[in-house]
Write a structure and sequence with these properties.
alpha+beta, globular, Beta-galactosidase, Chain A, domain 5, GH-type_carb-bd, 19 helices
Length: 790
């Protein structure tokens, strides 16, 4: 028995050792690409899509699990499907080529197509009864995704569909699994968040045996938005049916079914136009090899779409396109190498992946792009980008991009500047996409992005034009009560709703402008904007201790409830408890207003610890990811956990960061606390995992939080490497014991942009008890405006 036990022990030990070696070997063979899971954030209210896209690509080729029609679906159902796909669904309507990444609003979904077999159905059907239409059931067990690639089996048709992409072209591969005949249905009526008469006009025509060109104009979030398509098949089209459901505009020459459908066969007419077009391309000999499809986009013309197609993917090698996409992703993902648990690395690299999808390219290979003036422009001297969700992304995404790709940041700023030149209002973008300004959200946060980049030395754009655009934008008489803001020092609530939020965010933007102008030697202009940056004080009500709306006569808002977030109230997607902490550029000044360090800490604790009832936020679905009144799912709260540093209590920030990380994020499909907002949520995660965060972009400092991964190496654009080491980090050891920068003790609770760009090592020693002296002295706290500008 003893010998047997000894032998068993030896065998078990050897097996364990071999298993350990195998695991280590497997981990060594993994690349950063392998830790990206595009399904993270596709459940819950993450509003992310799992499909194929390259970094900052014009094409986002992804499955749509539902295209709800306004009036047919309740608002929460539409809201969940802002990206077209939701992980809870089990049917797919097809694959469309444009999608928003993590927004709180829906549009796009351009040119939906789906491979089908058997009876042709030209309506999508419903989730409840998929058999009514062309949609197909699917299972997550037969679905996969990785950067630049998506795959799913369409169970109703026994077809395996694969997607990949280049910047301007999406590529499909459909395996019909031995079935000889099949079809590809193109639905030009389909859109994400559809509603009656969304399609203003569309047309499509065949130009040779394998190629179609198409056009569609839609009225959605963006009005009269145009997109052109070039569609190429790897096999000759055997039959082409144009179905027009727009009041029988065409005579029926061979109908597919009901009298509502007008079909024009390939042999008679090779084009069709109308407001409700669908096309069925039929093929044979599909049992011999998969059918491949390439779809190129252009906002300019059909000719440009064709040129994009033949230039970017002139071949039919699907695997090469996929490999090229992976190479592009690895070139970015390898800029940061991190060590941590498998779950931590999955969250980190997926967040990095999502942070690199927008702003997205909006320009053809010949340099042309559609401007916000509706005209075609030549942008050969720079790359033109679209999708500026600036109320969200100025906070952390754009600061992150300054380290990841400063050259692209310059092009993004140049894109903002031509937007300014082309806009009739002479404004920098607010929330713009696809050549249209939506005027969604508040502030003039493009100035923050420009100022932060300029102060970091990123200046490969017309700087004089940037100054002009900043001055015109921040003093624009036609935008969101700026004249009243300049007259009263605040936005009166009887002039516009969301007046408190506007005032506070204008004041921050003015600070960023002042910083930029001061660095340029424009002292007079800087002084003006520094004075404006103190306007936050004009909406602070000493009696209640909150930022509170007041009218043009100075009268405070009656019936004031700091917990309530009302639509058309004084705050933007938030309440007074949250927005009273929005003074990121002068936290020390805010602390003085609130009565000092102790009172400020108590106010922060009350924010996190006071329950916020659903009744108080019922009008705002964006307020999500709650810890008390702290709403991590919405941007106005993103900097708040770091504010304990400014009161000399950085150990409290360390507690809150861990609390947020542990309770509001995971590596599961519902792992985001709210919609990603074009990468802002992901950028928050990246900075916070590294241990620091840009509370006020433009001041060039980063408040230290607490690292959440063991180690990281950031490869900087200047060729240097900035390392972060968290010694002793584990579930219990969440507190910073001491910090050193390049081997020297760091007593301040912040680092600077210059610290990062100089390279070197930020070394944390972690422990299970709070060090209540580190970073507590006033001289070691992050710097605030009122401390150097009285």
């Amino acid at each position: 028995m003893k010998r047997s036990a000894l032998l068993l022990t030896l065998i078990c030990g050897l097996t364990s050792a071999l298993f350990s070696v195998a695991v280590k070997s497997a981990n060594l063979s993994k690349t950063n690409l392998d830790y990206v899971d595009p399904f993270i954030g596709t459940g819950g209210d993450g509003h992310l899509f799992p499909g194929a896209v390259v970094p900052f690509g014009m094409v986002q080729l992804s499955p749509d699990t539902d295209n709800p029609m306004r009036g047919e679906s309740p608002q929460p159902e539409i809201y969940k499907r802002c990206a077209g796909y939701h992980y809870d669904d089990n049917t797919i309507t097809g694959f469309s080529h444009t999608h928003f990444s993590g927004t709180g609003h829906s549009d796009l979904g351009d040119l939906l197509m789906i491979p089908i077999t058997g009876e042709v159905k030209t309506s999508a059907g419903t989730k409840q009864d998929p058999d009514l239409g062309y949609r197909s059931r699917f299972s997550h067990n037969k679905e996969s995704a990785s950067p630049g690639y998506y795959q799913v089996e369409l169970l109703d048709y026994n077809i395996n569909a694969e997607l990949t992409s280049s910047p301007r072209v999406g590529m499909h591969r459909y395996d019909f699994k031995g079935q000889k005949e099949g079809h590809v249905l193109l639905d030009l009526t389909a859109a994400i968040y559809n509603f009656k008469n969304k399609v203003l006009w569309s047309d499509i025509r065949q130009i040779d045996a394998t190629t179609l060109v198409a056009y569609r104009a839609t009225n959605g979030w963006a009005e009269n938005r145009s997109m052109y398509f070039a569609i190429s098949f790897s096999k000759p089209i055997q039959r082409l049916d144009f179905i027009n459901e727009d009041n029988m505009r065409y005579r029926c020459m061979g109908c597919l079914g009901t009298s509502k459908h007008s079909t024009i066969e390939n042999k008679a007419v090779k084009k069709a136009s109308g407001k409700a077009l669908k096309v069925v391309a039929s093929f044979n000999e599909l049992d011999k090899e998969p059918l491949l499809v390439k779809v190129a986009l252009s906002a300019v013309s059909r000719k440009n779409a064709l040129e994009n197609l033949t230039t970017e993917i002139p071949h039919w090698d699907f695997d090469k396109v996929r490999s090229d996409a992976e190479t592009q992703w690895l070139s970015y993902l390898n800029k940061v190498n991190v060590e941590g648990t498998n779950a931590q690395k999955r969250q980190f690299y997926t967040a990095f992946y999502h942070a690199l999808q927008a702003p997205s390219l909006y320009q053809d290979v010949n340099g042309q792009y559609l401007g916000v003036d509706g005209e075609i422009h030549d942008g050969k001297h720079f790359k033109h980008y679209t999708l500026f969700s600036l109320w969200d992304t100025y906070r952390a995404l754009h600061p992150l991009l300054t380290y990841v790709d400063p050259e692209r940041v310059s092009d993004m700023i140049q894109s903002m500047l031509v937007h300014y030149q082309q806009s009739y209002e002479k404004m920098l973008p607010v929330w713009s996409f696809h050549g249209h300004e939506t005027w969604t959200m508040i502030g003039y946060h493009a100035v923050s992005v420009i100022a932060d980049a300029y102060l970091k030395g990123i200046r490969n754009y017309d700087v004089d034009l940037a100054v002009e655009a900043i001055l015109k934008t921040s003093n624009n008489p036609v935008y969101d009560a700026i004249p009243e803001y300049l007259t009263y020092g605040y936005v009166p609530r009887d002039v516009l709703p969301e007046s408190v939020s506007m005032t506070l965010e204008y004041a921050y933007d003015d600070f960023a402008i002042a910083r930029m102008f001061e660095s340029m030697g424009k002292q007079k202009e800087a002084a003006t904007y520094y004075a404006r940056a103190f306007n936050y004080r004009n909406v602070y009500d000493e009696e209640t201790g909150y930022m509170r709306g007041r009218d043009s006569k100075g009268v405070w808002e009656p019936d004031f409830n700091p917990m309530e977030a009302k639509y058309m109230g004084s705050y933007t997607e938030g309440n007074a408890k949250q927005y009273s902490f929005y003074v990121p550029h002068d936290v020390a000044g805010l602390i003085d207003l609130m009565g000092g360090d102790t009172q400020f800490e108590a106010r922060l604790d009350a924010l996190f610890d006071t329950h916020l009832s659903a009744e108080m936020i019922k009008e705002h679905e964006d307020i999500a990811g709650l810890i008390g009144n702290y709403a991590h799912g919405n941007e106005p709260s993103h900097h708040i956990a770091y504010l304990y540093n400014y009161a000399g209590k950085p150990w409290r920030t360390q507690e809150r960061i861990r609390q947020i990380m542990n309770t509001l994020s995971s590596d599961k499909p519902d792992g985001l606390a709210g919609n990603d907002d074009v990468g802002q949520m992901s950028a928050w995660y990246i900075f916070s995992a590294l241990g620091f965060y840009p509370v006020a972009p433009g001041d060039l400092s980063y408040a230290i939080g607490a690292p959440q991964i063991d180690r990281a190496e950031l490869k900087l654009p200047n060729g240097k490497t900035f390392k972060m080491i968290a010694q002793g980090l584990n579930e219990e050891n969440k507190y910073i014991q001491q910090v050193s920068l390049n081997g020297k003790p760091l007593t301040r609770s912040y680092i600077t942009h210059n610290d990062i760009m100089a390279g070197g090592t930020l070394h944390f020693v972690m422990g299970n008890e709070a060090n209540k002296t580190w970073g507590s002295e006033t001289k070691n706290r992050p710097v605030s405006l009122s401390e150097y500008k009285k």
